[in-house]
């Protein structure tokens, strides 16, 4: 399948490389730990990496003992069960240890988490492209991708990528083909820009992405990539999903237009207040000037009479 669409920086200042790097996925809360978990996990990492040191008090001693005894045991138990294929014996916390280690999504109940681990193991063993071969992507989904679609596209890969500006510099160093499942779609709060979250099923070419890696792509960029998809078992279900997506998009656009109009109205009222204040000051100055011009001759006559 020929997929040779080449891309450059977009005119609105955002480069197409928004969709080439994994940094965007860090903004998706589905793949992030909550604040409490993050602090706990960072504390564990610091203790493990920093080694043992004399604690300041008895509480710190118990914390360090718990880390050194519990965490390795949890990781070992999780790894042993996964290696033995006994996923049904995993507890929810153990599932999350595995998923967190590989940067995968943490949401869902135990069945969903174990299913995600099983799929990751299958793809890790080279089953991704076998289960989702290139020949199965036969339908063009330009302009109508939705959650649940299994899609494939080719994208340019850039050597230099600026995380702060989310833009690339220099010519592309190659291309890669990505096959993935759309697991989430959202509209930005500020500009209502449509964004897809894609779980990578397999990837090959320059800098291939790891299995089930979360990749965020703006809708307009995805549609430029000559994206193709697999056929659903029931295309009627997909039509319902598309209708829901279009309805959400219409609501989002309506809300944005209302906010824009409200902002313009505030700016106009602010401008009117400034103009009104200027006119009031100008009118007062004119009034004072007229009053002075009428009083000044009388003052001159009064001064002359005294002389």
Descriptive overview:
With 307 residues, the protein is α+β, with helices and mostly antiparallel strands. The chain has two domains: 22-129, no CATH class; 134-248, no CATH class. Helices cover 50% and strands 18% of the residues. It is built from six helices and six strands. It has a six-stranded antiparallel β-sheet. Helix 3 packs parallel to helix 4. The longest helix has 72 residues, at 235-306. The termini are far apart.
Architecture blueprint of SSEs:
Layout: H1 35-50, H2 58-83, H3 92-101, H4 110-131, E1 139-140, E2 150-162, E3 167-187, E4 194-205, E5 214-218, H5 219-224, E6 228-229, H6 235-306
Antiparallel strand pairs: 1-6, 2-3, 2-6, 3-4, 4-5
Helix pairs in contact: 2-3, 3-4
Please outline what is shown here.
With 307 residues, the chain is α+β, with helices and mostly antiparallel strands. It is 50% helix and 18% strand. α3 (92-101) packs parallel to α4.
Parts with pLDDT < 50 across at least 5 consecutive residues: 1-33
Protein structure class:
alpha+beta
Helical percent range? 40-55%
Overall mean confidence score, pLDDT: 71
Major sheet characteristics: 6 strands, antiparallel
Tally of separate domains: 2
Distance between the termini: 108 Å
Q: How would you describe this structure in keywords?
A:
2 domains; 307 residues; elongated; alpha+beta; disordered N terminus; 6-stranded antiparallel sheet
């Amino acid at each position: 399948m020929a997929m040779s669409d080449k891309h450059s920086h977009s005119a609105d200042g955002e480069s197409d490389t928004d969709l080439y790097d994994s940094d965007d996925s860090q903004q998706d809360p589905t793949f992030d730990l909550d604040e409490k978990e993050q602090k706990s996990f960072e504390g564990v990492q610091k203790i493990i990496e920093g080694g043992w040191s004399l604690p300041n008090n008895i509480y710190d001693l118990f914390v360090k003992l718990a880390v050194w005894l519990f965490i390795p045991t949890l990781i070992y138990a999780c790894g042993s069960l996964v290696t033995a294929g006994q996923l049904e014996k995993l507890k929810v916390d153990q599932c999350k240890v595995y998923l967190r280690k590989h940067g995968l999504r943490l949401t869902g109940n135990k069945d969903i988490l174990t299913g995600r681990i099983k799929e990751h193991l299958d793809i890790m063993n080279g089953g991704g492209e076998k289960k989702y071969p290139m020949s199965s992507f036969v339908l063009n989904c330009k302009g109508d991708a939705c959650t649940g679609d299994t899609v494939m596209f080719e994208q340019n890969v850039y050597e230099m990528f600026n995380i702060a500006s989310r833009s690339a510099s220099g010519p592309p160093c190659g291309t890669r083909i990505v096959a993935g499942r759309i697991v989430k779609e959202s509209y930005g709060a500020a500009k209502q820009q449509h964004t897809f979250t894609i779980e990578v099923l397999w990837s090959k070419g320059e800098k291939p992405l790891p299995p089930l890696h979360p990749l965020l792509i703006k809708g307009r960029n995805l549609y430029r990539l000559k994206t193709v998809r697999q056929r659903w078992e029931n295309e009627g279900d997909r039509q319902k999903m598309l209708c829901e997506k279009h309805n959400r998009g219409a609501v989002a656009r309506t809300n944005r237009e209302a906010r824009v109009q409200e902002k313009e109205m505030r700016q106009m009222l602010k401008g009117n207040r400034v103009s009104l204040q200027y006119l009031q000051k100008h009118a007062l100055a004119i009034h004072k000037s007229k009053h002075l011009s009428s009083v000044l001759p009388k003052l001159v006559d009064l001064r002359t009479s005294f002389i």
